Amino acid sequence: MIIGNALPNIPWQDRPAGCRDVVWRYDANPIIDKTLIPAANSIFNSAVVAKDGAFAGVFRCDNTSFEQNLYLGRSKDGIHWGLEPDPMKLYDKQGNLIGNACGYDPRVCLIEDTYYVTWCNRFYGPTIGVACSRDFVTFTQLENAFIPFNRNGVLFPRKIGGKYIMLSRPSDNGHTPFGDIFLSQSPDMEHWGYHRYVMGAGGGWSWTKIGPGPVPIETDDGWLLIYHGVATTCSGMIYSMGAAILDRDEPWKVLYRTKPYILHPTELYERVGDVPNVTFPCATLQDAATGRIAIYYGAADTVVALAFTQVDELTDFIKKNSV
Ligand code: BMA
pLDDT tens digit string along 269-315? Predict the structure, then answer.
């Protein structure tokens, strides 16, 4: 059972007849491609939230110079999106313009009345940038959470034990051939410490590295974490999705973790693109009334796609197929 708000207008499609998978795809995938931004080479690994009866998001767009920036977008139904033509701007705490939000792989997390964007920022190499906004129009940049190198900063949607909580994946400056998930805690969203190890690269489909995906979903079983896991093969890396349940009060404790993946690149738009064989989840929407979950994921570093699952079925699957 999801602990949270109802979202009656969540994008949704029932599991197709005959499909036995715990996660199934939207039949009109991909939902976002490069045509939504004039200078885009690709739009992928992006994050969405429900806002004012509709949806808003922060999108990763690599332009035709291969510069990586974040863009804002809005949607009435969570499927058809309008994106702003220029990168989102960041302001300092005094309201001065810093510049474009450079970087990639954003997540967006609503905590109380504030939207926080965490993304892979450039600071002598990749690390976790943090910005916040109340109106989803003006974004104030806070201090980077960590020193380099780090990727996949993912906040929890509420304080736990009086502290903000962030998952991350320490990395290197390149196509990191290792990676485990760690957790850090902060009293103020700027000073991060009390670091805890959560879980490491697993076997099989995630033997090379793992990284947290969407903002964890609170359930009565614990925090539902969807994450990416990578296997290196003779022809490159394959990015699949797994799921875990973390303890509600001490979320560095892993209660269950799937041995099999829950989604894996099989469709043409996941297998073919700038980086083949990538499914990279960055956001979910969920409806506490029905248990429906919509998963937004980047496919082949080229487009954004949508998949669905049901919370009780997914948590059952995780428990029954735990490592
Ligand atoms: C990671 C990040 C992701 C990307 C993935 C596969 O290191 O750069 O943005 O989707 O590689 O290329």
Answer: 999 999 999 999 999 999 999 999 999 999 999 999 999 999 999 99
Nearest partner of 242 among 206, 291, 197, 283, judged by Cα: 206
Query: Hunting for tokens 């429900």 — which residue is that?
Result: 50
Secondary structure class of 312 (helix, strand, coil): helix
Q: Does residue 53 sit in helix, strand or coil?
A: coil
Q: How distant, in Å, are the alpha carbons of 108, 155, 165, 189, 209 from that of 111? A: 10, 9, 11, 11, 28
278 residue type, one letter: V
Cut 0.90: pTM above it:
yes
Let me know: does 299 contact 270? Beta carbons within 8 Å: yes
Q: Is the CB of 62 under 6 A from ligand 1?
A: no
Ligand 1 within 6 A of CB of 11: no
Is the C-alpha dihedral spanning 305, 237, 199, 322 positive or negative?
A: positive
Q: What is the bridge-based pairing of β-strands 24-25 and 303-310?
A: antiparallel
Q: How far is the CA of 152 from the centre of ligand 1 (A)?
A: 10
